[in-house]
User: Which sequence fits this backbone?
């Protein structure tokens, strides 16, 4: 009954996916709205996911030689304006500080929407010689973009992210770093978040303001819409020239540095929800689940039950994130709550189990129940968490593959985007005008030119002229 | 020669302490100035200290039942104005956002100087019943205060900190939490940063805008000036009444919550520098040193030397933060650089050492050299790091005690603040007017009413009326 009530509070994902998403975010207590329009509170259950994600991504950064720094959140207007494409891309959506204390400022400051300009201003002084290179810096911070439409995690006026900014002595090294960091993101998504991604390059239309090339990882949500899950940009020496970032090379000549930047944000939590969630709530990948094993005592008032639950917690907590739900709610309600919150394993233990020297482990992803001898709990939990990660990744991959279609011509393309939801692979001539037509007609954008190319046909799916590349198309968040 | 050059770049602390501080911050590459007036870049060497500090403080928070969250960086003007004392305290020094994108905002937003008002706005909806209490939330973020005079770490327009905000069902529980978190800070300073602190309560004049009581930990810098190193505030139900944060208690009546907040910021890195540093540079407490052992090969071009250095790194890196300086600089320069950066131990290894199966460990704090058999390096490093922490704390405590004076009357008080630099313990009548006179005459403020009281005399050091409390007085950063 209580279980039913909690689950009934969620709209079924097949009925209304957008409402399902909002319900999950609210009922799993990840986020709340605030009095500040377009800004959210990330609540403990949501922030704990971010912390685990941040820790593991940061470890991968450090292995890749990245150093963390912190730069100011304010950018003087004149600095933002130095690189032409960049300011055109961002100026329309920044928040402006005009007063400090009781005084108007001499120059407006924008709250950083991204920090390329500040890093350039910093590197301009910090880089003198080839010995100072490369600079491989990153910061964890919040950024602001004055969006009109906002949605929890996916789009808000302020969000948390990391932004890496590097400077190199050669173009080759910058390109290598751009790809290296894209691979860090891709591996992280698969190995930590159980989200399979497509790696590729953005078209010029979709690339970052000021970049020579933008690389992206694209993932497919349960509803068939795409989500750009991480990007890595190669700037060439464009910013370096605009900001005058020069160094004396080994041959004693002055050269401009080559730069990159790359970022991943709290958006990715939206992807976790929409790739793995179901009608019972959140399904968290074990590696970022704040609670990996939720121990739920059955008939907890009976002698020895709570004690056994605590004993199991003590045994498991050295290796796993464990919690005992010893509140006075009914077991059914506790089950439903643990499912809503997406905890990968639920451990049920009652008087009968104790008598028989066993307990029940219930997988969140499949809802399968497994009887386990109490002697073997640690090993079984470890094994199941690994299996769950593996199965979640494979399930997501299968879902994505099932919803990835191929269009040979305009007719097929139109039919697919009218009748199906998912990625459509199709050939493209390389002209922006075709992208514009496709966007205008079907609200579809090019997601990426994948590294793994296929020759589907020889002609552009839109204009019929000779095709240059195969592109993943989709509707995106 | 090279060593000399690097050290000469630092002004001696006895000649000009302020310049010494600036030199250290710059030469140890902790911070740099930016084009954004009053805002700094925290460089890798500085940020790595903050990360270590943050990790260890956060662990202590989690042990104390604290949960992390993230709230928006913007506060609508109307929200900031809800608590009268609070807005008076902060409005003069906040930065105002007036435009979002190309449009003027309907209501100005300030960039958070602190987040009491936002947490109140959040708790107002999130707290309904006694079952929802206590809320023990914290956020790691940056805040902005439009300071006129700025100094690296000590005072800047933007700085990093954590701010804890809690809500409780009773006044007693709020007071307990306020003191509990003050103790977390005090223990952290001594056990992690090797900084001894005085715990006490702020006078009403010095307390936080909107608080019923502010508790503080005060530390003494090498130059005899005080630094407020962490504060914990009890708000009573003042904010709750201003914001309408009510809950239904067990007895079914509506009650206001009682709240606290507590914070520690990047200022504390300033304290680390000014408590422990010397004329050779930074001296880092081992627990927050990004490099604990700097391995410096001597005659590194000779066969086997670099290999042995790397071998030692491999042996040590599982337990300690280790780095080999294999650059082509001279050993003397490397020594000076490792000292400048404050690494607790330097490990010197050359051909002769290898032959004799030993190496030299040099303590940064005492500059003492210790010969160690290569077989015993791990154990000796562990032991020395513990000793260094212990000795740094005791040295700082001895320095503070030596510079803590007692004044029985106005004459002594004046003489001490004219001739000496340090804490002065003296009796106080409890009147704000005496604090104002003392500040006006000698630029001295009450640092705290220490928990450990002494009855020095019966009369106020300023007005001669009956004394209520013993107070620590000092000049402060």
Assistant:
């Amino acid at each position: 009954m209580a279980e039913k009530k909690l689950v009934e509070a969620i709209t079924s994902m097949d009925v209304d996916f957008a409402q399902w998403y909002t319900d999950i975010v609210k009922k799993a207590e990840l986020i709340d709205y605030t009095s500040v329009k377009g800004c959210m509170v990330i609540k403990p259950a949501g922030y704990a996911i971010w912390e685990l994600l941040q820790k593991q991504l940061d470890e991968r950064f450090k292995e890749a030689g990245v150093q963390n720094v912190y730069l100011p959140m304010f950018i003087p207007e004149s600095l933002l304006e130095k690189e032409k494409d960049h300011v055109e891309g961002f100026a329309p959506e920044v928040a402006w500080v005009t007063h400090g204390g009781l005084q108007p400022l001499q120059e407006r400051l924008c709250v950083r929407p991204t920090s390329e300009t500040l890093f350039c201003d910093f590197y301009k002084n910090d880089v003198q010689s080839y010995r100072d290179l490369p600079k491989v810096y990153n910061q964890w911070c919040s950024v602001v973009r004055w969006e009109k439409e906002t949605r929890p995690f996916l789009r808000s006026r302020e969000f948390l992210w990391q932004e890496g900014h590097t400077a190199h002595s050669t173009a080759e090294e910058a390109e290598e770093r751009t790809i290296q960091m894209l691979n860090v993101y891709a591996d992280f998504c698969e190995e930590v978040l159980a989200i399979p991604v497509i790696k590729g390059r953005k078209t010029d239309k979709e690339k970052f303001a000021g970049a020579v090339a933008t690389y992206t990882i694209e993932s497919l949500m349960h509803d068939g819409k795409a989500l750009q899950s991480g990007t890595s940009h190669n700037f060439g020496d464009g910013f370096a020239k605009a900001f005058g970032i020069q160094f004396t090379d080994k041959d004693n000549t002055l050269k401009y540095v080559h730069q990159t930047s790359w970022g991943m944000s709290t958006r990715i939590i939206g992807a976790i929800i929409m790739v793995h969630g179901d009608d019972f709530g959140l399904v968290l990948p074990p590696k970022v689940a704040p609670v990996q094993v939720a121990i739920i005592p059955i008939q907890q008032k009976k002698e020895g039950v709570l004690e056994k639950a605590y004993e199991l917690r003590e045994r498991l907590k050295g290796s796993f994130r464990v919690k005992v739900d010893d509140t006075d709610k009914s077991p059914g309600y506790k089950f439903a709550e643990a499912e809503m919150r997406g905890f990968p394993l639920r451990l049920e233990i009652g008087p009968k189990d104790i008598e028989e020297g066993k307990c029940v482990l219930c997988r969140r992803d499949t809802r399968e129940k497994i009887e386990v001898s109490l002697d073997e709990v640690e090993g079984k939990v470890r094994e199941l968490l690994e299996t769950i990660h593996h199965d979640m990744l494979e399930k997501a991959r299968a879902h994505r593959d099932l919803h990835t279609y191929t269009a040979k011509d305009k007719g097929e393309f139109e039919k697919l985007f009218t009748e199906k939801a998912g990625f459509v692979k199709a050939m493209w001539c390389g002209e922006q005008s075709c992208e514009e037509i496709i966007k205008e007609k079907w609200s579809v954008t090019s997601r990426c030119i994948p590294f793994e190319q296929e020759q589907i046909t020889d002609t552009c799916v839109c204009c019929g002229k000779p095709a240059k590349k195969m592109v993943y198309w989709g509707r995106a968040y």
